[in-house]
Design goal:
The complex is a heterodimer of chains A (100) and B (659). With 100 residues, chain A is mainly alpha-helical. In chain A, 78% of the residues lie in helices and 0% in strands. In chain A, helix 1 packs antiparallel against helix 2 and helix 2 packs antiparallel against helix 3. Chain A starts with a helix and ends in a 13-residue tail after the last helix. Chain B has a two-stranded antiparallel sheet with strand order 1-2. Chain B has 659 residues and is mainly α. The radius of gyration of chain B is 30 Å and the shape is globular. In chain B, a hairpin with a 2-residue loop joins strand 1 and strand 2. Chain B has 28 helices and two strands. Classes of the chains: A mainly alpha (100), B mainly alpha (659). At the A-B interface, helix 1 of A face helix 28 of B.
């Protein structure tokens, strides 16, 4: 059996990639995908722990996260489309009109 | 016994009138305002009369009658009830306040007719009646204090009634501030009283003061201190030295107000309060001496100022201060009922004098300067004759009310060793006769000193003349209570108040002579019949001399006063300048206080410390915000970076903690 630490290391690596992508990329779609990567990294560790402990709680959590991610994708993409239409650009650095 | 168990109705009626007129009066026709204002005070008068009837029906076993309505304040051992009481002293005050008050309400409907603030005036006047009735009906010092402050408030509102006039608002403020000093003394007296006796109820305080009386207590001076502090309150409200300065200025108010508040009722509240506290005062001989001396000095001092005033209302104002001094003199020498007697007759004749002066001012279309009057006798005969009655009464002409009440006071001090006090009192009576007749002659006799083509002198309407006539009758007969004394009889007024002021009521000194008599060396000797007549005759003679001098100066040789004013220019200027007391207070108290307030309290404490702290906190928040807001770049990725850094820091910290 694969030890749980392997899964956790993979999960951490995925999460780190998501964070790096979120911080360094400028395209909103890319940022969005990075968030998905982070969410799924967390899902992975949930499942790993669930299996290690032999309980289903972690898997139930994963379903919640997937639902939230789907909802987020729906709302988020709508926002992205509006931004794209209004600003003719997907560069996140241009979206700073709240700044003083 | 309906009214007796519902004594609160008596003050509640004027309060209702004030509320109705004050809140709704603007939308009403004037007739409705009149009905509410006169109706509420008239009903209060009827209720008072009924209460007096019931009081005598229940009989002496229930005197003084006390009614407790609810517990007002209960805190720790302190307990104050909203309670009212009625006894003979209260009855005198109630009748004077409601009856004179009602007459003056009637008079005001005529006098204030042209005024735009008609409704406001009556609302205030009713409010005053409410507080005054609370004051006299109270059965503990705290409820009394409510009335005490309330009449001060109404007085302030009514002095500043013509609020577009700067002098009126200033006079109102002056009255309010000067009264604060007196009220402060009153309040301290209440604290001290509570600390000493544990209660503020009249019955409790007087009972304990009398029961626990010992020379020791007197030696520690607690009672003396309480009495003196109460008297400080009385000097403020009743315009005695050194706090009398507000009353002459209070003449800025409408004349009916001067008559009701600043002559007949409110200013006598101090006299009433001292008389009410007579148990405490008679156990504190030092305080009694102070009361008597202050009263006498004030009486003389104010009378001398009144000699040279040219404003008809100012003459009457100083005369009021002087007469109040007489009342305190009476109280101070232990002749409490004589003081209250003079209070009552004074309410009649001084109320009448002010109303008459109002009628004169009305006739002259607003002129108040005696130098611009003269010869009004034929033109306003009703005012002339009623004023004559009042002037005779205050001058002490035999048979008139003032004669009996003033002589009751003077005879109380008369005696082998009180002769100097008596002499000064009688001299003041002579001055009173002089300045009153001076005012009278200057107003009504001689040649008119105004332009008769410009000023159309006219008699006042009936609504003003009827109160004048009623008060004129009372100014004559109001003192006849004491008349039997002249024929070997009793003073019926003394007799009436005996249950309140008798030495047995709570006084341990029952049967022992008044300490004050010994302080002035009179012993407990009272005047016998023969001496009473002699003293009365002497006082009357001096008053007659005053009258004759006034007659000589102002009718026979009108140029004498002018020559005297130039030849004695020093004393004349001193008197005309009112001894420059206002200027003295301004220099010694007001200006240093203003300087201190401006430079220290305002600029240093308020602007520097308080505003500095508040603004400093605000500025600090703004400054730090200005620095911190740079963190919020508006760039989503930078926020994410901060989140990551935070997460890394917290995670590191947790791991480090775990090891």
């Amino acid at each position: 059996m694969v030890p749980v630490s392997y899964f956790l290391i993979l999960s951490a690596a995925l999460f780190g990639l998501g964070v790096m992508g979120f911080v360094f990329k400028r395209n909103i779609i890319t940022l969005f995908m990075c968030i998905e990567v982070m969410l799924n990294a967390v899902n992975l560790s949930f499942v790993a722990f669930s299996r290690m402990l032999g309980e289903l709680d972690g898997q139930v959590f994963v379903f919640f996260v997937i639902v939230v991610a789907a909802a987020e994708a729906a709302v988020g993409l709508a926002i992205v489309i509006l931004i794209a239409r209004n600003r003719k650009s997907l560069n996140v650095e241009r979206v700073d009109s709240m700044k003083l | 016994m309906f009214i007796l168990s519902h004594l609160w109705i008596i003050p509640a009626l004027p309060l209702l009138g004030a509320a109705l007129n004050g809140l709704l009066g603007r939308h009403w026709p004037r007739r409705a305002t009149n009905i509410v204002a006169l109706g509420s005070t008239g009903l209060a008068l009827l209720a008072t009369v009924e209460a007096v009837r019931e009081f005598f029906v229940i009989g002496p076993g229930y005197w003084p009658w006390t009614q407790n309505y609810f517990t007002w304040i209960a805190a720790g051992t302190f307990r104050a009830d909203f309670a009212m009481q009625i006894d003979q002293l209260t009855i005198v005050m109630l009748l004077v306040v409601t009856f004179v008050g009602w007459l003056i309400h009637i008079y005001s409907t005529g006098y204030m007719k042209e005024d735009a603030g008609y409704v406001r005036f009556f609302a205030y006047l009713n409010l005053f009646m409410f507080f005054m009735l609370i004051l006299v009906l109270a059965s503990n010092y705290l409820v009394m204090f409510v009335g005490w402050e309330g009449v001060g408030l109404s007085s302030y509102l009514l002095i500043g009634f013509f609020f577009r006039k700067n002098s009126a608002t200033n006079a109102g403020n002056k009255a309010f501030w000067v009264n604060r000093i007196g009220d402060f003394g009153f309040l301290i007296a209440l604290f001290l009283m509570f600390r000493t006796f544990g209660t503020l109820d009249f019955a409790g305080v007087f009972g304990q003061a009398a029961a626990n009386y010992s020379p020791d207590l007197a030696g520690h001076g607690v009672l003396t201190a309480i009495a003196l502090l109460l008297f400080v309150g009385a000097t403020g409200k009743s315009a005695q030295l050194p706090l009398y300065v507000w009353l002459p200025d209070a003449m800025e108010g409408p004349t009916p107000v001067s008559a009701l508040i600043h002559a007949a009722t409110m200013v006598t509240a101090g006299v009433y309060m001292v008389a009410r506290s007579h148990v405490i005062f008679s156990l504190a001989p030092v305080a009694m001496t102070v009361v008597a001396v202050i009263g006498l000095v004030t009486a003389f001092f104010a009378a001398t100022i009144a000699l040279v005033q040219n404003d008809i209302k100012k003459v009457l104002a100083y005369s009021t201060v002087s007469q109040l001094g007489y009342m305190f003199l009476g109280l101070g020498v232990g002749a409490f009922s004589a003081g209250i007697f003079h209070l009552m007759t004074h309410a009649f004749f001084k109320g009448l004098l002010f109303l008459g002066a109002g009628s004169v001012i009305h006739a002259m279309s607003g002129e108040q300067d005696l130098r611009k009057m003269g010869g009004l006798r034929k033109k306003i005969p009703w005012t002339y004759w009623t004023m004559l009655m009042a002037t005779l009464a205050i001058a002490g002409a035999p048979g008139f009310s003032g004669f009996f009440s003033k002589d009751a006071i003077l005879n109380a001090i008369g005696g082998p060793n009180g002769i100097y006090l008596w002499g000064l009192g009688v001299l003041t009576a002579g001055l009173t006769a002089f300045y009153m007749f001076r005012m009278f002659f200057l107003t009504f006799h001689g040649r008119p000193r105004f332009d008769e083509h410009k000023v159309h002198v006219h008699e006042s309407p009936k609504s003003m003349l009827v109160p004048l006539a009623v008060l004129a009758v009372l100014s004559v007969v109001g003192g006849w209570w004491a008349a039997p004394e002249l024929f070997h009889g009793d003073n019926l007024f003394d007799h009436f108040l005996y249950p309140v002021f008798s030495p047995q009521v709570g006084s341990p000194a029952a049967g022992t002579p008044n300490a004050f008599w010994y302080a002035i060396g009179r012993g407990d000797a009272t005047l016998n019949y023969q001496q009473t007549l002699e003293f009365m005759a002497a006082a009357t003679g001096v008053a007659l001399i005053g009258f004759l001098i006034a007659w000589w100066f102002y009718l026979r040789k009108p140029d004498i006063p002018k020559r005297l004013a130039t030849s004695l220019s020093g004393p004349y200027r001193l008197l005309a300048g009112k001894y420059f007391v206002d200027e003295l207070y301004a220099a010694v108290i007001v200006r240093p206080l203003v300087w201190l307030s401006t430079n220290f309290l305002w600029h240093a404490v308020d602007e520097g410390a308080i505003d500095g702290t508040v603004n400093g906190v605000g500025e600090a928040a703004q400054e730090s915000g200005g620095i911190l807001r740079r963190v919020y770049s508006g760039n989503v990725r930078s926020y994410a970076t901060w989140v990551v850094i935070g997460a890394v820091v917290i995670t590191t910290f947790l791991i480090w903690m775990a090891h």
